[in-house]
Amino acid sequence: MTTATIATILLIGVFLLLVFLRVPIVYSIGIASLIDFFYLGINPMQMALKFVSNLNSYTLLAVPFFILMGELMSAGGITETLIEFSKEIVGWFTGGAAMVNVVASFFFGGISGSSSADCASLGPIEIKMMEEQGYDRAFSTCLTMASSVEGILVPPSQNMVIYTLAAAGTTTVSIGQLFVAGYVPGAVLSLALMIYSAYYARKMHIPTTGRFSPMGTLRAFGKAIWGMLAVLIVVVGVIAGVFTTTESAACAVVWSLVVGLFIYKGFRIRDIPNIFINVVTTLGKVLILLGVSGAFTYLLTYLKIPAKVATGLFALTSNKFLILVLLNILMLILGCLIEMACLILMLTPVILPIWIQMGLSPIHLGIVMVLNLGIGLLTPPVGSTLFIGSAISNIKIETLAKKMLPFYITMAIALLILTYFPQSFMWLPGLLYR
Predict the structure, then answer these.
(1) Tens of pLDDT, residues 396-426
(2) Which domain holds residue 109?
(3) Looking at the 3D structure of the chain, how many domains does it have?
(4) Which end of the chain is more exposed for a tag (fewer CB within 10 A), N or C?
(5) pTM of full prediction above 0.90
């Protein structure tokens, strides 16, 4: 075997071994990369340089702002207003309480940008609400977890920012186009979950409650709009070219602070330091992961692993349909094992060249990858949202994983639609970015 082949086996093998031994993902990436640097005879200082250069990005500044915006809105009391607004919109349908869960996640996800934050903030309220309407706790929890994935599709999403950074070595991806492209996929996933919810409610004979009230809807919208304006500041500002992504995120933070303090009054000035502590804790995990992933990605490129994977796939089959199936399976399997941000950084340099070679858009890959890895957040053994769902419902993880099977199928259907019919959502960024 050649030196490059041995180095590739060493890099991937050590990393997977450490992951299966439950070594924290940051250490797994760092140790595997360092061993490979020594084996290849590359000065280890290169690893430190790659660590720093991966963090030296103006676009990356948007990530802490998005995290802070989500924390401020969560603490500010927007959760209750979004649920009330969602009740007015869909609460009177068959399966209304379940649909409220889905719609509230769509709105809240656009503010938090995080599946875990969505599940933790909305979960306790939504599960209680659904149980009062006759749904069992396991179904309510599973729907809450599944709908929380909308939060990483609907902009602004820090995972999409990370994807644009990971794609930078291959091609330029417009964060504005990626943000705009996320709305329809978020709606497709919402619709799939709502259809299944209506079927379940009819099957279990859960009664429909409430009725549509135009005035009630307007009143609820009037309360919720203040929080949703934070999302409009980001998306409209970026699309219109008024702000860069980072500038729009900073403006949204200021707005979120004003709304939380003076409109919703969910927190006071003395609570702000604790909010910042939560943000710094989350941000520290994200940044150190981005840093060590820079060294890992450098080795992937140095060893020409993306080119080898592409060659192997096209040698196996030239059928675009089958290649897309194989890539989706790869992302789904790895998404069950490895943290999302890390996988975006690791997989994008490998899959994006193949994607482009098939004549597909990098925006399309961004959406498909985010949804794929979002499903991984709901699966054992490392799904963070699954752990949060278990904690707030007091249901064992094994039980929840089994109950999630219909939701996995429903989400897989949405994934297939977005994979094979990109025109279903690519028309929107195409319309706005002519």
Answers:
(1) 888 888 999 999 999 999 999 999 999 999 9
(2) 61-284+305-432
(3) 1
(4) C
(5) no
